[in-house]
Design goal:
It contains five helices and three strands. By secondary structure, the chain is mainly alpha-helical. Among the domains are: 61 residues, Histone, subunit A (Orthogonal Bundle); 44 residues, no CATH class. A three-stranded antiparallel beta sheet has the order 1-2-3, with no helix packed on it. The radius of gyration is 37 Å and the shape is elongated. One of its GO terms (molecular function) is zinc ion binding. This is PADR1 domain-containing protein.
Length: 188
């Protein structure tokens, strides 16, 4: 009987619920290898940056630069902006900066005098006042008679969404060019 017990002990299967140390070591080795690879990659990138910087320094020391004549500052105008000329855009940006210092009530009062939209954030109010000072007041829509067209200075067009009439909203959806909708004079 002794021999049968010893045979049973030898035939026991390993306990799979406990982690095997050999596997743990192999995963630790993999982690350390990946860390080493990452560190080597970082060091290579640093060396490449240093060589590029050194090359730029030597190239810049060899090039002689003539001092160009100072250019007059031209206002930066976004690409494909059709609503303003370069001078108008410069004045528009300057007026926005000036109008930011004014109170909301002062900006709203200017807009009321010119029969323009009075709601919105301080930046929107300053934007409307500056736009009106440069180009003039936007008139009511000639198509629907009640809507106030919105100006898209990138396209150089006006778009009238419509207006609220007592209870109902009257849709317009009319688009105008700069020539089709002349602006009124701005009142200060």
């Amino acid at each position: 009987m002794v021999s049968t017990r010893s045979q049973k002990n030898k035939e026991k299967k390993p306990d799979l619920s406990k982690p095997i140390k050999a596997e743990k070591v192999s995963t630790d080795k993999k982690k350390s290898q990946t860390k080493q690879v990452k560190n080597q990659a970082k060091e290579e990138k640093k060396k490449e940056k240093e060589t590029v910087q050194n090359d730029q320094k030597t190239a810049s020391s060899q090039v002689t630069v003539k001092n160009p004549k100072p250019k007059q500052k031209e206002p930066k105008k976004p690409a494909k902006m059709l609503g303003y000329t370069a001078d108008q855009y410069a004045k528009y940006k300057e007026l926005i900066q000036e109008n930011k210092d004014k109170s909301n009530e002062a900006l709203k009062e200017i807009l009321r005098k010119n029969e323009q939209k009075v709601s919105g954030s301080k930046y929107e109010l300053a934007d409307r006042v500056a736009d009106g000072m440069v180009l003039g007041a936007i008139p009511k829509c000639p198509n629907c008679g009640g809507g106030r067209p919105k100006f898209d200075f990138m396209k150089g067009t006006y778009y009238c969404p419509g207006y609220r009439d007592d209870v109902d909203f009257v849709n317009c959806h009319k688009t105008y060019t700069l020539d089709q909708l002349p602006r009124n004079s701005w009142v200060l």
